[in-house]
Design goal:
The complex is a heterodimer of chains A (848) and B (116). In chain A, strands 1, 2, 3, 6, 7, 8, 9, 10, 11, 12 and 13 form an eleven-stranded mixed β-sheet that branches. A six-stranded mixed β-sheet of chain A has the order 16-17-21-19-20-18, covered by helices on one side. Chain A has a four-stranded antiparallel β-sheet with strand order 15-22-14-23. In chain A, α6 crosses α14. In chain A, β9 and β10 form a beta hairpin. Chain A has four domains: 63 residues, no CATH class; 210 residues, no CATH class; 292 residues, no CATH class; 191 residues, no CATH class. Chain A is built from 25 helices and 23 strands. Chain A is α+β, with helices and mostly antiparallel strands. Chain B is α+β, with helices and mostly antiparallel strands. Classes of the chains: A alpha+beta (848), B alpha+beta (116).
Chain lengths: 848, 116
Amino acid sequence: MNWFQRLLKTARMEKELDVELRFHFEAQVADKINAGLTEAEARRATRLEFGGLEQIKQDCRESRGTLWLVSIVQDLRFGARILAKSPGFSVTAILVLALGIGVSTLAFSLYNIASLQSIPVRDPATVVRIERRSPANINPGVPYASIAYYRDNAKSLSAVMATMGVAPLVLNHDEQRVRATFVSSNYFSELGGTAATGRLFDAARDDAASAPVCVLSYRLWQRKFDSDPSIVGKAINLGGKPATVIGVASETFASLGSDSPDLWLPLLQHSYFVEGSKPLADPKFEGLIGMWGRLAPGVSRSSAEQELLSLTNQLRKIYPTVIWDHEYIVVSPGAHFFTFEGGPGRPPLLEIVGLLVFLILAIACANLGGLLMARGAGRQREIQLRFDLGARKLRVFRQLLTENLLLGLLGSLAALPLSYGVLRLVLLYSNAPAWMSALPDWRVFLFTSAMGFVAALLFGLLPTLQMVRQKKNRSLWHQFVVCAQVGASCVLLILAGLLVRATLHTMYSDPGFGYERVLSIDPGMNGHGFASAQAQAYLDQLQNRLRTVPGVTFVSIARTPPLVNTTVTTTSIDVAGRRIMIYPNWVSPEFFQTMQIPMLRGRSFRQGEKNAVILSESLARKRWPSEDPIGKQWEKSNNVVIGVVGNTRAMELNNTDATEMYYPPSADDFPEMSVLVRTAGDPNTLTPTIKAIAGSIDTGLYPTITPLTAGFRKNVSQAEQIAAIVSLLGGIAIFLAVVGLLGLVSYAVSQRTKEIAIRLALGADRIEIFTAVLHRFAWPVLFGLVAGVAITAGLSQVLRRALYGISGLDPISYMGAMAILIAILAAAVLLPIRRAFQLDIARTLHFE
Amino acid sequence: MSTPSKFDLPQGTLDLLILRVVALGPIHGYAISQHIQMISKEALQIQQGSLYPALHRLENKNFLVAEWGSTETGREAKFYRLTAKGRTQLKAETESWERLTEVVAMILQHPLGEPS
């Protein structure tokens, strides 16, 4: 019999063992009778010789080598019975663990989906993203000329793909625009994509010379065309250009990168769809063309990087102005939805989320520790009894540990559906790609069970050790548990407070400019290859026409329209060793009236004025704290400060540190400019008129018209979401802290029931008893609060930019969080103590 | 009428004795202990408490294999038999035992090693 048979055929083996030993016994008895003893004497003698039959059997069983597993199963069954016996404790412990583990599982699942799981494309391991870097530049895009060169010359890549996102396009003159991505013709075939209907791009058929075509995403097909299969072969209108729909990608097709476009267009036909642009012909084209590749069989990423680097050096000879100094190529795994990139200047998102999740788990674990300890007190008799019956310490310890592990396992099991449910909602709500599944994969299972294991082991170990050692004094561990959970709850509560306050601040405080009645019109000239003079003419004409519209009060242009902009430029200067962050903007003279930004000193620009700058009040004060800035030269340029305007939070609502400065637009800026229109009444009623005017000036352009209120709402809703998530975490933290403290104080009271009863019997003052019981909780709570405040203060410096207009040290948030925490802790403490005061003194004393 | 064993068997020796006895042919536990007692002229008596755990250990190590059969008195008993692996083991252990006793005897019989 092998090990497994020995493990599984226990019943048969027991029977055989019994028969074997019985045979020996009977044979020995028979021999003794033969030797002349009576049967009774023979049996008695044999029994004496045999000694303990059960002990022999146990020794035989041990020789099977399966006993440890069998005893673990026994322990588990025993543990399950114990847990079932006190359902109140078990449910609380499992709930506490499930919340703690559930939050971390959810965070891990999201990370897993985004960064660990491969997107479902053919052979995802060899798909790579290719980016160019240099010590001075980081640019995710690669010029098309370089892409073509790499494609034709790199032997380490078996295929090269290119993608290019563009500003949303108008579909069939609809109000709502669609997101299109231009892709190389091998895109679908390389990724192994299939068509739900029709066909996908084909390198042989869809090139620059052939008829313009597009492939719809499954979602767009459902949403706009009611999944009508006859759409294939029909023409649709995209940004004013007709194109034939050749097919619909399957529902589960995963596009590269994190954008999931509504439709795909052939990159080779880019200049047809976006009139005037020439990203393929012009190596200096500044749009973002993403480069992707497939590694040739057996080629590693680093050897591909080396080959591409040598090709880059050859390219420099062909396009000396395009290739940077010391440019090198980074090849990274491409088949992931999102890659968290560290590095200076990027917010340490992973670390922050990791910390929050860790805090929740720590609170949950600390609670479990507290609960276990409180229960340990009640089980002292049981454990003493086991020792008295001859149980070994290690055996009891192992049994108790198994019980904890069972709790951890059940907690993990309960956490999985919790995290699954929330994740499903998150995916649904965030309109995630169809291939993303909330179902846990092996990584999530592994993570969750590891969390349960760690939680049970870390925080079950010490209380269990103390239970086995039968130590009465658990106060040090106690104090640590209290300290840890108060500290962690404190961090989460303060953060929640800061973020909620920041959201309120964004919504209800004055951003420094009037956004309610302003429309932004982005003509998108840059994408259409407008030259400077052409752009300026267009802008002049548009502004003049708009000024004649009744209800329009001011019209101006700006390179970065407030609130609706998707990219923001920042710069900085050093004043006396301190770095000042500045948002520059390029605006026309009437910008300040249009945006209702008060002119505090000096004057606005004159039409066509050069070499002048206008500063925001805070920038002027930081740069020249005690001097009049008007007439001063700005840094080492020939620009002179001509005016000072009010501070705004126009560029990023969440950055109160920032200051602004304004330049008049130079010739290069015109293709990038947007037009801002202030209206006397509701701006939305003018949208059709403005649209008609903008469209009539140049039929090739499809301007985006956005009310600034929409941008404002978007900003606020982002802040609200973050605040809601952190508040939820804070709520979980409070709940856990309450459960934990209730457990601990109940325990402390139960430990001293007799003492309290005696004191009460002797007529002691209740307040005195109260303080005596709670005395040892005071210091750890205080320590926890101090540690929590210190950690948060450190953290909030990192969070600064998320804190819309609130200082990271906002006293109201700190005081509020601490007040709430102390109030809740007090409530959690009072409940068990009240019960203690109501106890039946005579009975309690009698019982002991 | 228990006669306590006259020797403390050195560690592992019991296994060797069992293997040796079982090598004679299929045999049950009681007969093994009787055999050892008989051959050693009552000098060795194997306790049940040591015999059966040792037998099971050897069986689990695949040195022995067991079959159920009937004795001459018609009772059902578990008969042990040596496996090929057990035979190799017996040979190896016998050799090492002989070597050990030789060495021990050599030292004990050496005139210089004699205690004064």
